[in-house]
Write a structure and sequence with these properties.
Order of helices and strands: EEEEEEEEEEEEEEEEEEHHE
Helix content: under 10%
Largest sheet: 19 strands, mixed
Structural class: mainly beta
Shape: globular
Number of helices: 2
Length: 276
């Protein structure tokens, strides 16, 4: 069992690649993150805390990468107060992700998945197993690679809800929107089917359709089919993106062992790394 808690910022949890060891690397640009890793029986707890400067400005949060060992876990629970959360290649009988405000992206996960976001976008891409997604305000995309018996559920207060299912499944489908359109483009099986899908949106569009069988593995930047309105970034936005890119480059170099935590601190960043 694994429990991950972070105050705020960018949080990435992924399975170890070949030759890698489990570990935690975290940096902050205003204060040094406090990283606590401890075990209690068969439970591993990872906590990343910032003592100041995270509440109102996103870029003052921590940027953290957590590498977990290969194999399947009994339970993985992830809690990020505010910011971006990405889960890659994690297999767990019970996988739960909660974010107060921000975005969640789950890539190639497996097991029973439960994602909840108070305000923000949720993307579940190429998941195998049951899944439930809940967003108070924000779009939800659920893309299922392998169906399981049970109920798939998407509940959105304000936003667009889209579910993509593998072709040929025997699924009972119910989709409803209080204010908005509902489109079911996937053949619904008569009740009672072993698998069911329930999609609801208070204000927004609901869609259930077949996924693209010819699509390869999803990319980290996979997005909704809807195209965002073009915006002209100002100088402040461009500078923020450059700074974010610099921080992630420092974080990756620290994770790969190319620089030390002291080197990261000397480059006007504050970092902490620990083995799991």
């Amino acid at each position: 069992q694994v429990q991950v808690d972070q105050t705020a910022g960018k949080l990435t949890i992924r399975a170890c690649k070949e030759g890698e060891a489990p570990g935690v690397v975290s940096i902050g640009n205003k204060s040094t993150p406090e990283v606590d890793v401890h075990r209690s029986g068969d439970r591993l707890v990872i906590e990343v805390r910032l003592t100041k400067g995270w509440l109102f400005r996103r870029r003052q949060g921590a940027s953290t990468i957590i590498r977990l060992g290969e194999g399947s876990f009994e339970q993985v629970r992830i809690d990020n107060g505010y910011g971006e959360t990405e889960v890659q290649g994690i297999k767990a009988a019970d996988l739960r992700v909660h974010v107060g405000a921000g975005t969640v992206q789950c890539l190639l996960t497996s097991g029973s998945l439960d994602v909840s976001v108070g305000a923000g976008k949720v993307s579940v891409l190429s998941h195998s197993g049951l899944a439930r997604c809940d967003s108070g305000t924000g779009d939800v995309l659920m893309d299922i690679a392998e169906l399981a018996a049970g109920e798939y559920k998407v509940d959105v207060g304000l936003g667009r809800a889209e579910v993509r299912l593998p072709a040929g499944g025997e699924v009972t489908i119910k989709a409803s929107s209080g204010i908005g359109k509902s489109r079911v483009e996937y053949p619904s099986a008569p009740e009672p089917a072993m698998t069911s899908v329930r999609v609801t949106s208070g204000i927004g569009e609901c869609i259930v359709k077949a996924r693209d069988a010819g699509a390869g593995a999803p990319s980290r930047n996979a997005a909704f089919t809807a195209q965002p309105k073009p915006q002209r970034p100002g100088r402040a936005a461009a500078a923020s993106r450059r700074r974010e890119g610099e921080e992630m480059r420092v974080l990756q170099m620290l994770e790969q062992g190319k620089i030390t935590p002291q080197d990261a601190a000397d480059s006007d960043r504050f970092a902490q790394a620990k083995d799991v």
